[in-house]
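Batch manifest line 206
LIGAND: adenosine-5'-triphosphate
JOB: complex structure
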Amino acid sequence: MISAAGVRRSFGGVEVLRGVDLVVAPGEFVTLSGPSGSGKTALLSILCGFDFPDAGAVEPGPAAWSACAVLPQSLGLATELTLEENVALPLRLRGLATDPVARVLAELGIGDLGGRYPAQVSFGQQQRAALARAVVARPSALLADEPTAHLDAASAEAAIGVLRRVADDGAAVLIATHHDAVHAAADRVLELAGGRISSGLRRTTT
Ligand SMILES: Nc1ncnc2c1ncn2[C@@H]1O[C@H](COP(=O)(O)OP(=O)(O)OP(=O)(O)O)[C@@H](O)[C@H]1O
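JOB STATUS: finished
ARTIFACT:
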């Protein structure tokens, strides 16, 4: 579960988040839209524990952070590790087998790049490696900031398929994005405007 209740956050005297309430249930794939500067990154940073609210409460709290995967805009790949080693890291840290690494890299179209270092691949390829690392250990919550920002349409489709599967496997998934294709794949689209969540349209399936 991912949730925020009455979350407020100011920067330099400007209140960017003015009482944000949201809930993403296990198994839900929810996207967060909103104009540039509306506070999407600020909200995700608080939800994943990188930052703290001035007021309000969030889940996951510290006790559940280990089961929460985060894909920041800056990616955070370890530059001294190959893509394969980066993706294997969350599995190794938990003492799990690294068999899924090759499958996830292949699914994202970078199966032949596992032996390269981040500096030896494009930013879009790094972005897919960071997504692979975020999902490989089957997190129970996933927070991602613009995970398809540097991807072409086909690569974005593959990324969306992976995100969808993480939710179908039972994770609560919240994605900040400007990308219509990601919103179209979501169960619900939340709009952050004026410091609050102003809508939560449920996608209708026919
Ligand atoms: N650490 C900080 N210090 C000062 N101001 C900040 C800080 N973090 C965010 N802000 C301000 O808060 C506002 C929201 O920023 P944020 O990055 O959350 O927007 P966003 O909705 O993610 O934008 P984008 O769609 O462009 O990524 C902006 O006006 C930004 O300048």
